[in-house]
Design a protein that fits this description.
Layout lengths: L1 E5 L4 H30 L8 H14 L5 H7 L6 E12 L2 E15 L3 E8 L2 E13 L3 E12 L9 E9 L5 E8 L5 E10 L7
Parallel strand pairs: 1-5
Antiparallel strand pairs: 1-4, 2-3, 2-9, 3-4, 4-5, 5-6, 6-7, 7-8, 8-9
Helix pairs in contact: 1-2
């Protein structure tokens, strides 16, 4: 997975809060270990602030951010899961066309990283950079840059890069957007995403 940008105003506060809690917890554990050492005569080691911060950050990054209350507060949606994509190519090499295509999109996301993988009949693509931000009253916008690799038997297709700009509904069940490809493909089109089932559990 790769990092993604977000516009949550609470992200710096969250990092500071975890850091403060880590310092407090490390101090408490240090005091307890000192008391145990004095009482038992056996040296009891403590846990460093950095180790505590790392554990708390891992727990939040992988699990805690998915809680409904946390997501509403931080304005970051849980996009994990499988999505059906109904696409339509509208222009190629500057000429109007109309090609319908279907694909499956798998999104894997933590608080700090994500990966978007699209599988179509002729090729597949994987995101390499992304941004995700809340648009009040509209939903959540995901913009990602991807690499696309055609299937080995698709001699007429070239490897290319592209950009997807899609807006997810407030309930995170559907999304609409557009995609653009580079000079090696020179296509433009629309995408409609619908969620398949419930979000996958991030591991």
């Amino acid at each position: 997975m790769h990092p993604y940008a977000q516009n949550s105003p609470h992200q710096p506060k969250l990092i500071a809060l975890i850091a403060i809690f880590s310092v407090a917890l490390a101090s408490l554990l240090g005091f307890i270990s000192a008391q145990l050492t004095e009482t038992t005569g056996i040296t009891v080691g403590s846990i460093s602030t950095l180790a505590i911060f790392s554990m708390l950050w891992w727990l939040f990054d992988k699990k805690l951010w998915k809680c409904e209350l946390t997501r509403k507060l931080l304005l970051v949606p849980d996009l994990n899961g499988t999505w059906h994509c109904a696409g339509k190519t509208l222009r190629k090499n500057g000429e109007s066309v109309e090609w319908d295509w279907n694909a499956t999109i798998q999104i894997v996301q933590s608080w700090s990283k994500m990966r978007v993988v699209l599988k179509a009949s002729q090729s597949g693509s994987t995101s390499i950079a992304a941004s995700l931000y809340h648009e009040p009253g509209q939903g959540y916008r995901l913009i990602y840059h991807y690499d696309n690799d055609p299937n080995p038997d698709e001699a007429d297709l070239a490897r290319h890069t592209g950009l997807v700009n899609i807006l997810f509904s407030e309930d995170i069940q559907s999304a609409d957007g557009k995609y653009f490809t580079d000079k090696d493909r020179m296509t433009f089109g629309s995408m409609r995403l619908t969620r398949n089932g419930t979000p996958n559990e991030q591991t």
